[in-house]
Specification:
2 strands, globular, mainly alpha, 272 residues, two-stranded antiparallel ribbon
C-alpha cells in the first residue's frame, strides 16, 4: 500500500472559484459550532435552571477570566471572539482524530491559521488605535527618543508583521508535523497511512472473544498455553494501542495545546 499524507485537493468549483476539501471541512465545522452556540444561547434565564445554561455560563466565565487576565479589565467585548476562535481551532485540530488519510484538519492547511492570525492582527491594530488615538499609535513606532527613530521604526514595523506570521507558522507547523509523523507510524505498523476507526473496533472485538467467550477454556489450559493465548489477545490489540498513542499525542494533546497557545498569544498581541 502506498504511503501518502492527506493533501489539500480541489473537489469542485463555483463560478470558477475552486472549492477545496479544507473549505468544505471548515464550513462543516462552522455550521456545527453555529448550531451548538445557538442552542446553548437559547432560553437563558436570570437564574440558571438547566444544565445547558450552566455549561454556557461556565464557558463564558472561563474565557472571560482568561481575556481579562491577559488583555486587561473592561474587555468583555472580546469574549465572543475568543470563545468562537477557541472552539473553531480546537474542533479543527481534533478533526484529525477520525483517521489519517480521511480528514485533513483545516488548521493543517496554512491558509486557515494565516486567516485566523490576520484577523487577530487587524483587531489588535484597531484596538490599539482606539485606546491610544491615531497620533499616539504611530508615535509608538518611533521610539522613546528622536535619535532612536531610525533604529526603532523598522524594528517595530518588522515586529508587527512578524506577529501574524509567527502565529501562523507555529500552529501550521505543529499540525502538519503531527500529520506526517502519524502517517509514518501507521505506515510502519500496518503498511498504510489509513487507520479507520473500524480497525480499532475489530481489535477490541477480537481480543474480547479470546479473553471472555473462551475464558473457561483458557482457565483450563496449561500455564504455557495460557500465556500464548493471552499474548495473542494482546497482539490483536496492537492497532488499538497504536491508534491511542498517535491520536492521543499528535491530535488530542498537541491540538489542545496549540489551541491554547494560539489564543493566549492572540490576547497578548491585542493587549495595550
Amino acid at each position: 500500500m502506498s504511503v501518502s499524507i492527506p493533501e489539500v485537493t480541489s473537489g469542485f468549483s463555483i463560478f470558477g472559484f475552486e472549492i477545496t476539501n479544507t473549505m468544505v471541512w471548515t464550513w462543516i465545522i462552522l455550521g456545527a459550532l453555529s448550531v451548538l452556540f445557538i442552542w446553548l444561547g437559547s432560553g437563558l434565564k436570570v437564574k440558571p435552571e438547566s444544565k445547558k445554561q450552566i455549561v454556557a455560563e461556565t464557558i463564558y466565565g472561563l474565557v472571560g477570566n482568561l481575556v481579562e487576565s491577559n488583555i486587561g479589565p473592561n474587555t468583555k467585548a472580546f469574549i465572543p471572539y475568543f470563545t468562537a476562535l477557541f472552539a473553531f481551532i480546537l474542533t479543527s485540530n481534533l478533526s484529525g482524530v477520525w483517521g489519517l488519510g480521511v480528514i485533513r484538519p483545516p488548521t493543517a492547511d496554512i491558509a486557515t491559521p494565516f486567516a485566523l492570525a490576520l484577523m487577530t492582527c487587524v483587531i489588535s491594530q484597531y484596538y490599539h488605535i482606539k485606546m491610544n488615538g491615531v497620533k499616539e499609535y504611530f508615535k509608538g513606532f518611533l521610539g522613546p527618543v528622536p535619535f532612536m527613530t531610525p533604529i526603532m521604526l523598522p524594528m517595530n514595523i518588522i515586529s508587527e508583521i512578524a506577529n501574524p506570521i509567527s502565529l501562523t507558522l507555529r500552529m501550521f507547523g505543529n499540525l502538519l508535523g503531527g500529520l506526517i509523523i502519524g502517517t509514518l507510524i501507521y505506515s510502519m505498523l500496518i503498511g498504510s497511512n489509513v487507520m479507520p476507526i473500524w480497525i480499532a473496533i475489530g481489535s477490541v472485538v477480537l481480543c474480547a472473544v479470546l479473553l471472555t467467550k473462551q475464558y473457561k477454556k483458557i482457565k483450563n489450559l496449561e500455564k504455557g498455553k495460557k500465556k500464548l493465548v493471552m499474548g495473542l489477545g494482546i497482539l490483536c490489540c496492537l492497532p488499538l494501542f497504536a491508534m491511542i498513542f498517535v491520536h492521543g499525542y499528535f491530535d488530542i494533546f498537541s491540538g489542545c495545546l496549540q489551541t491554547y497557545i494560539f489564543c493566549l498569544l492572540s490576547m497578548i498581541f491585542i493587549s495595550p
